[in-house]
Amino acid sequence: MMNQINDNALFDRILKDELITPYFQPIYDLTNGTVHGYEALSRESKNSALFSPLPLFDLAQQEGKLHQLELLCRKKALSRFSKLALEGKLFLNISASLFSSPEHQSEMSLSELDQLGIDKNQIVIELSEQHPYEYTDLTHSRIKGYRDIGFQIAIDDLGVGYSGLQLWSELQPNIVKIDRHFVQNIDTDKIKQEFIRAMIGIAERTNCTVIAEGIETKQELAFLIKMGITLGQGYFLGHPTDSPKFATNPYLAKQAIKPSELGEDHSESVQSLCRPTPYLHENSALDDASKHFKKHKELTVIPILDHQHCPIGVIRRHQLHEIFSTPYGRALYEQKPVTQLLTSNVLVVESSVSLATVSTLITDQEADVLNNEIIIVRNGKYSGTGHLKDLLKRITELKIQTATYSNPLTLLPGNVPIHKEVSRRLLAGEDFHVAYFDLNDFKPFNDFFGYSKGDAVIQLVGSLIKDFVSPENNFIGHIGGDDFVVIFGDKNWKPQCEAILSAFAQEISDFYSTETLQEGGVWIKNREGEMRFHAILSLAIGVIKTSARQCSNHHQVAEMAAHAKKSAKEYEGNYVHLLPSNFLETAE
């Protein structure tokens, strides 16, 4: 009884003195790790028995003061969100049961949001159905009021509570959040998988966005992504905190920018991401940094340069804010040099470095380390910065571009990327070899054994090339049919080609019967009705060495490679042939 009285007194004090601290749990785009928004959660500030939200809101419900508590939580969340200058959506929890209450205020002043610098399109009203509710004309009117302002509507904890599907059909929300009950062990629970598939199907047909809540393991995350869920939150991705520090999730971002998924296009450098960014010198004071951040609100870091204009680290906005917001913090630190708060753990790359290399550098960092900013230098001197968000965006564009121009059978780059890569190397003045791969007697094989077996052979060739060609400075392309190209920047091109021929000679035997192998081939009737003998499939590789001194464009390179392939096919069996360096002279 005494505890109940104490709790009631504490609760009244919480409301009176506004003893609520807002926490923010990030909601991530699972495809690239960028932040989609934050769910605002509330904690009692004094770490008492009511610190946890469940007893706090249960007591508010018992006391008939749930509305007052939610208004206080909303006020605190908006103020803190504004102060932290967070990006993305802000999800504000409101109990659905309050919508039919006469005292519920469905209006949120746009002038209030303007004063806080929060765009109305950032607000998502998240409806919880933890308590029974009744859908009335008043409920409908208040939902419409939120929508008319420009807010989105989300349903929280879908799948639990009193009437989840009914609420979905009546409110027609923009967003539904799948409850953690269905997410837990989703990777192994077949029943839960079927429930979530059904929810995803309904969401797609009603133009509704799905967010998975309560993701707590790597396995759950991987399975949800596989199912097509693109937004999620949970302890594995990020705990609620009163001061969110990361705009991008390290684990998700590194999964998104794995070099193996970038395709074969190595041509674009990090210079394409470079933007001029204000900087300070190492003898500047922290007060100078504070003024910089105030003037340039878009900055999250300020590069710090030495007397030779070389970067030595960065000052991070949130770290400076933490120090200056403490009692006497500004007075104690504003005249201190920026080097006292310098973070040297930042990625610095030359402007000529490829995007693929930058992605490798990022993914090789420790699991919990992620540099949102990339400092770009030219010959060691500061040039500007790039942002991880821009890198993710560009990589996504490159993936789409790669998919657009890829051969559908092998998913290798097709003619457009091949021509682009040849042109790039010629323009850069590089010396390189081009190897043209072609199967001998493939058409009769395809006609006799069928296109399915023919496709399998083509896939085998593509797979062997990928297995034996080093990814370092080499480019693999699929022209079409049984024709492949490898552009070798690597001088050891010949051993790699010979390894491919050796492996092909062994594995092609799986496509023939023992009898056919013993005979060395098959007899096939040609178009004239004549029986012709065709040997076991073999692979011809014609190779040319070229440079800008010999060829001015990719058309000339393609012509030379075609001659090399033709010469290689004149030899029996698996053979690699290097076209003589004086070919152009003799051809003329």
List keywords for this structure.
588 residues; alpha/beta; TIM Barrel; CBS-domain; Alpha-Beta Plaits; 3 domains; 22 helices; flat
How are the elements arranged and paired?
Blueprint: H1 2-17, E1 20-29, E2 35-44, H2 53-62, H3 66-84, E3 89-95, H4 110-116, E4 123-128, H5 137-149, E5 152-158, H6 164-171, E6 175-178, H7 180-183, H8 190-205, E7 209-212, H9 218-227, E8 231-232, H10 250-256, E9 280-281, H11 286-295, E10 301-305, E11 311-316, H12 317-324, H13 329-333, E12 347-350, H14 355-363, E13 373-378, E14 381-387, H15 388-404, H16 415-427, E15 432-440, H17 442-449, H18 451-468, E16 474-480, E17 483-488, H19 493-507, H20 514-519, E18 521-525, E19 531-535, E20 538-546, H21 554-568, E21 575-578, H22 583-587
Parallel strand pairs: 2-3, 3-4, 4-5, 5-6, 6-7, 7-8, 9-10, 12-13, 20-21
Antiparallel strand pairs: 1-2, 1-8, 10-11, 13-14, 15-17, 15-20, 16-17, 18-19
Helix pairs in contact: 2-3, 17-18, 18-19
Q: How large is the count of helical segments?
A: 22
Roughly what is the average pLDDT, rounded to an integer?
A: 84
> Architecture of the largest domain, according to CATH?
Alpha-Beta Barrel
Distance between the termini: 105 Å
Strand proportion, as a percent range, falls in 15-25%
Question: What is the 3D shape?
Answer: flat
Poorly predicted regions: 259-266
CATH superfamily of the largest domain: EAL domain
CATH level 1 class label of the largest domain = Alpha Beta
What is the CATH topology classification name of the largest domain?
TIM Barrel
How many domains? 3
Helix content: 40-55%
- Secondary-structure content class: alpha/beta
